[in-house]
Design a protein that fits this description.
The protein is of the alpha/beta class. 46% of the residues lie in helices and 20% in strands. The chain has 26 helices and 28 strands. A 6-stranded parallel beta sheet has the order 2-1-3-4-5-11. Helix 4 packs across helix 5 and helix 21 packs across helix 26. The radius of gyration is 41 Å and the shape is extended. It starts with 6 loop residues before the first helix and ends in a 15-residue tail after the last strand.
């Protein structure tokens, strides 16, 4: 929330008064402050802005920024702004909408808005649907940042106004064909979020009229990296139309403007888009819609509503596109002639002509040439002055030498012949030698013999090149011990640019060297500990390409001891199915400066596969913003093999259990049930014989009990192994299960199915049936639900089972006393069918179980599914 006031502005003005005038204004200023306080004592107007996407999602953020800026400028009184981001590009589901409704209701118990402003069609549709649950009746709403056709029916009849656009989608293609009539292929770049899927369908319908002239290529089912690859290899006579990119087909969210810049960097065809603010980011241009103006117009309506007018007084405000505008740089790049631009066009970013760009420089050069003769005269006149100045420099140098003797650092100077001409007192006190002993090349005697050659080489090469230098070497002190010094030298020049020699300083860095040695010893000990524990250590300074690794790390990953390693080379060795997970984990750690843990496979040079466990963290290096990754790797191949063996045993136990259930069910049905049937017939025959009056009721009771026992044995046989599953298939068996559970628990259970093959393999069918059976039993026993449902559908080569209820729910992370073994059994059954299962439940919000298994007509081969990393 933000409060807009003007106290600070008036205080700045008051400070401008001089002290004498301030006393005269104190009384008036006091009355002014009271007036201001009385104004701000009033409750500020509250405005809630509901964003469709995150806080960095152009073009929608263009609308919101313009709205907020214009509202606070034109309101004339304090405004209390609050913002909510739905982020529907990432979270677009009924469950999430309900959660958002509950979240907004809770946060607004003590803060109700005077005006609600949804920006973008997802936010607009959300507010229109839930406004009665979220806000007091009669709260005004302004819908903005959206196309008029996306406005919910009847939305403007409930104290609401509209400021938005009506996009001419065919006009976007007409703009392209206007400036590039030879175009035969248009690539439409659009994302895969719910909003973008709507516009994809609308575009396909509107562009049918052009298909006899242009072929359309759709990028909505691609990742952004794939879009970049396709954009870089477009066929001749192509054009790229970027409509909207909030989330690609792989679920990755994007900033549309940044995506435009990246497309522009690689594309081999011109690009066009929709919005005015994108001109200059890489598009050619045309009719462009004014997102900023939509926000401004919405702010004007908001001011009038907050001052008491009804929202229904304002007719819908449709903001059309600007006149045709183009980027001169893109027209030049793609050789688009100005003759093809429509009438009344505007061309921006045009480069100036030579005269327009450099006319003042040209004038200056002409004037300079005219004054050259005068300058020559002045230079001759200044020659005498320069001679005097050089004499002053000599005096200044003498003064410098005096000041240098008093400096706390070692200072030296050399002439043009590479020999030293001066050492200050601090240097002489440090070495314990006289100036005569040090001058010339005498100072070299104090340099440690092991450092002398390198020291002189650095000094002479810098001297020859007239460049600064820095070097470290050991210098003998007055106590005959050597100390490390850091020596920095810089060339000296006269006013005329004549080389005069070098001046330098030397600093004792022995303490720093000792600290570095201590650190190296610590790192060495740490490496020894890691080697002893068979841990592989690795360090990556992000600005550098090379990664430092320990010897054990190279052994674990299959590298030779002398082999250098980069991160990209390491990624290529990761198993292709785990590669993206590793790249994402490391990238997230760098972005968030956090830790990560993952397990993945690597492919060795000989083709073998090894499991690796990696733990690492990212930390800053110094204060320059650079980052470093520290990590430890462990070979867990044997552990993963052990876990896989345990899972295999678990799978065999489940299979053996099903086989035993099938045998018991068959024995009960074929043997015991038939015997009971014969006994029931015999009891009926016995009842028909003549008996005493006392015997007849007893015989009838025996016959009834035998029939009931036969019925119970039949039910028990079905529970052990449902015969309908093998005889009639998964759909019939599951429908029968839902009816049975409805009668048993008194809960309404909906059953839906679609495109399920009759000859689905037994393993997949049994897996789905048993999971549905276990889930419904848990629902009836523990959830307290009043409604539940089972859905079985075929989706993209998989069978998907969904079991849901509206019961109490449970904490999935900690499990529950009744669900622990049941959840484990469901996971094992899904794994045996080469499928995957997920549990979604929170206390008080019901439970939803989703299972996906591949569509297989024949039985899968024996063996375990791949263990996830």
């Amino acid at each position: 929330m933000r409060m807009v006031t003007c106290f600070d502005r008036w205080r700045v003005v008051f400070r401008r008064f001089n002290p004498a005038r301030r006393l005269g204004y104190i009384s008036g200023w006091f009355l002014f402050e009271l007036a201001i306080l009385s104004v701000f004592a009033a409750e500020p107007k509250r405005v809630l802005i509901v964003h469709s996407f995150g806080n960095a999602a152009p073009p929608f953020t263009i609308h919101s920024t313009a709205f907020e800026t214009e509202l606070t400028a034109k309101m004339g009184e304090p405004v209390d702004l609050d913002e909510v981001w739905l982020d529907v590009a990432r979270y677009a589901s009924l469950d999430m909408e309900e959660a958002l409704v509950e979240f907004m209701r809770q946060r607004q118990t003590k803060w109700q808005p005077d005006l609600v402003v949804p920006i973008g069609s997802p936010a607009g549709m959300f507010v229109a649907q839930y406004r009665d649950r979220l806000f007091p009746k009669g709260t005004p709403v302004i819908y903005t940042g959206m196309d008029q056709r996306r406005l919910p029916p009847g939305a403007l009849q409930q104290n609401a106004a509209f400021s938005g656009s009506s996009y001419d989608l065919p006009g976007l293609v007409e703009d392209i064909l206007q400036i590039a009539p030879a175009t035969t292929n248009i690539a439409v770049v659009i994302g895969a979020s719910q909003l973008e899927r709507y516009w994809t369908e609308a575009l396909r319908q509107d562009y049918l009229r052009f298909t006899n002239r242009v072929h359309f290529t759709w990028f909505n089912d691609l990742s952004f990296d794939q879009m970049l690859e396709r954009a870089a290899t477009m066929p001749p006579r192509s054009f790229i139309l970027l409509v909207l990119l909030m989330r690609d087909a792989t679920g990755v969210s994007h900033n549309a403007d940044e995506a435009l810049k990246r497309l522009h960097a690689v594309a081999n065809a011109p690009i066009n888009s929709i919005f005015q603010h994108q001109l200059g980011l890489g598009i050619v241009g045309g009719r462009l819609y004014q997102g900023e103006l939509e926000g401004i117009e919405a702010a004007h309506i908001a001011v009038r509503i907050l001052h008491g007018q009804s929202a229904t007084n304002f007719p819908p405000k449709i903001i059309g596109p600007i006149g045709p505008a183009y980027d001169w740089r893109e027209l030049q790049r793609w050789k688009i002639s100005d003759d093809r631009l429509p009438a009344g066009n505007t061309v921006l970013f045009r480069e100036l002509t030579m005269w327009e760009q450099y006319k003042w420089r040209i004038v200056a050069i002409v004037c300079l040439c005219g004054a050259e003769a005068l300058l020559i005269f002045l230079l001759l006149a200044n020659l005498v002055k320069r001679r005097r100045a050089e004499h002053s420099v000599a005096e200044s140098e003498a003064r410098f030498r005096k000041a240098a003797d008093d400096a706390p650092v070692m200072i030296w100077m050399s002439g043009t012949e590479k020999v030293c001409t001066f050492f200050n007192k601090t240097w002489l006190q440090f070495t314990g030698r006289t100036a005569k002993e040090e001058l010339g090349s005498g100072w070299v005697e104090g340099v440690h013999p092991e450092d002398r050659a390198a020291c002189l080489d650095t000094y002479e090469r810098a001297f020859d090149g007239r460049i600064e230098f820095t070097m470290e070497y050991r210098l003998r002190r007055c106590d005959d011990n050597y100390a490390w010094v850091l020596d920095h030298g810089a060339p000296r020049f006269s006013v005329a640019g004549t080389f005069l020699g070098y001046i330098g300083t030397a600093t004792d860095i022995s303490g720093l060297k000792q600290a570095e040695n201590t650190l190296r010893e610590s790192e060495k000990r740490m490496s020894l500990v890691a080697e002893a524990a068979n841990l592989g250590m690795w360090v990556w300074n992000a600005p550098e390409k090379q990664i430092w690794t320990s010897a054990t790390w190279k052994t674990i990953h299959g590298y030779a001891p002398e082999e250098s390693i980069t991160f990209e080379a390491l990624i290529q060795r990761v198993h292709r199915e785990d590669r993206e997970d590793v790249r994402r984990a490391v990238a997230d750690a760098f972005v968030n400066q956090s830790s990560f843990f993952l397990r993945h496979r690597i492919v060795l040079a000989g083709g073998g596969v090894r499991w690796i466990s990696k733990t690492g963290r990212v930390e800053p290096i110094g204060n320059n913003g650079a980052l470093r990754l520290l990590g430890v790797s462990i070979d867990i191949t044997e552990r993963m093999a052990t876990e896989e063996a345990a899972r295999e045993i678990s799978g065999k136990l489940i299979t053996a259990q099903e086989d035993e259930r099938r045998r018991l069910a068959r024995d009960l049905h074929d043997d015991l049930n038939q015997t009971l049937a014969l006994l029931s017939v015999d009891a009926d025959l016995l009842g028909r014989l003549d008996h005493t009056a006392e015997a007849r009721p007893l015989i009838e009771d025996i016959a009834t009990r035998v029939k009931d026992l036969s019925s119970e044995v039949h039910k028990l046989s079905y529970q052990l192994h449902p015969a309908k599953l093998e005889q009639l298939g998964l759909v019939s068996a599951t429908r029968s299960l839902c009816r049975e559970q409805t009668r048993l628990w008194g809960v309404s259970i909906d059953f839906l199915h679609d495109s399920i093959p009759q000859d689905l393999n037994r393993t997949s069918a049994l897996c789905l049936f048993r999971i549905a059976q276990e889930a419904l039993q848990n629902m009836g026993k523990h959830s307290g639900a009043t409604q539940a449902g089972v859905e079985i559908k075929r989706e993209s080569g998989e069978i998907r089972l969904v079991v849901w209820d509206n019961g109490h729910g449970f904490d999935v992370t900690s499990g529950s006393p009744h669900a622990g073994l049941g959840l484990i059994g469901m996971r094992e059954r899904a794994r045996l069918a080469h499928g995957r299962i997920s549990f979604n439940s929170t206390p008080g919000h019901g439970t939803r179980i989703e299972v996906n298994v591949p569509v297989l007509i024949k039985e899968p081969e024996e063996g375990m599914a791949k263990v996830a990393g």
